[in-house]
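For the sake of transparency, this paper describes our internal protein records without simplification. Such a record has a labelled line for the sequence and another for the backbone structure tokens. Nothing more is needed to write down the fold, since each code stands for a local backbone conformation. For reference, a complete record is included directly beneath this paragraph.
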Amino acid sequence: MELRLLAVDDEKFNLLLLQEALKHEGITLDTCGSPDKAIELLKANTYDVALLDVIMPGIDGFELRKLIREIDPKLPIIYLTAIVDTIDNDLIAKISADKFTYYMKKPFIRKELVSQIQQAAGSRRSDDETHRYYADLENDLSLASEVQRLLIPDWIMLENDMLVSSVYQPAQKVSGDIFDVIKLGGGRYFMFIGDIAGHGIQAALYMSAVQSLIKMIIGYGERQILTSEVLNQINRIFCTELGHDSYMTCIVALFDFSQNHLEFFSAGHPSLVEYSETTSEIRILNQKNKGGIPIGWDRDYTYRQEDAVEVKFQDDSVFFATTDGAFEISNHNGEMLGMDKMLQLLESIAGSEEPAIIPYRVREALPQMGYDKADDDICLITLKKVDQDNRLIRRVPPLMSEVNTFCSACESFVSEHTDNMELGVKVELLLGEFLNNIIMHGLDDRRQTRPGILVDLHVDNQSMVRLTILDKGKKWSFSTKPETPSEDIWNENSRFATAGRGMSIIHSIATNIRRNRYSELNVTNFEITPDKDKT
């Protein structure tokens, strides 16, 4: 390999020796007689090795090394010196204080010097290649993480009759957790949640393969599906095509919201959990531990349909699914959260929060309870039947054109349900200002990571409009109270004269404002009354 060296010595004779000794060794040698000149050359060029004398006028070789380290912390340095070390080995101690420094006595033997130069340069290049390799690997993992997130559903899924909210957090950059919800038609949905054994790249590769496999097996459109047969197909392909180095626990489930019927099958996975808003109680839906062994354990194993669990549920039922990383998170004493405490936490939160917020409230609460050591991937899912009576629930893309269309629809909805056009206009103005603020200040450069905004608009019997807005943008400052008395924007008799007055408009319209952040989720609540009176 072609090398470039810098030699620094105040004796011209020594520099001449080096030039002659190295001229046929594939080495380009720059020489200088002073530390000051050496620093100039180091700033202007890139060197593989520096050859330094120890004793030089003004700045000695060790002081020069300090200056070199400010320019290149890892440049290999070889000291060529005739100094004899002391009985206490002071010279060796000074040299070895820097792990990229070597030592050779004068007069040197040419072959030994060339060998030392090649060894030092080779170590540097090997170290640089290793760092580049890991930097490239880190970049590849970051890309793989983004690709993997595109394979799973967005943090919020919304259909006319179903809402799904999820927290998906790999323990490393990529995850072996997997979930999907596929619309079958007629109020029916297929849900899958699984946990590939292990972490990191291998588990993530299995996850990607299984995610594609499930879509291939289920397909799209209305069709009859047996949960046991889905598992049998996955198991056969997992064992034959994906090898035998891993396995997967999972649940496959069929939700029929037209009949309020659930069927699910567990392959060694934690059960689905149901919370009733009517009774304020939570229950595990697979108390008898029905089901089968994990996918990948036995190629010839048969999952039987009689081992599936069937459940009739109410309109207000909220369902939870999780991978074991969520309740195996531990505190500083090594104590795991456990399923019982997870159920207590879910029950305490579910009674006071909208279903879409629950996974984020849970994730926020865990470190507050002292459970902050997550060694496994975490996946938490909430699924609920949607009631659209007197409410408008939409997932709004972070595009101003989409915001304008949605706000117009909200104005029509409020005006129709309250018979109050002025109230409808107020809602349209507030939503437009606030959603555009989220896009401009909250999402910033996150527009390419599917950061949908969920808006839940509800009109009660007293024509009070309640707005809940959820977004996963960054935390940004928003005062829930006006800093100055709100101005009467309605005297201007124009809904369009609002430029630069977004916060004033919002405070002038809203009766009450609440804003919280749970884990990565911003939650903003507005109450808007038919008149401008504040409480």
In short: Residues 489-500 have pLDDT under 50 and may be disordered.
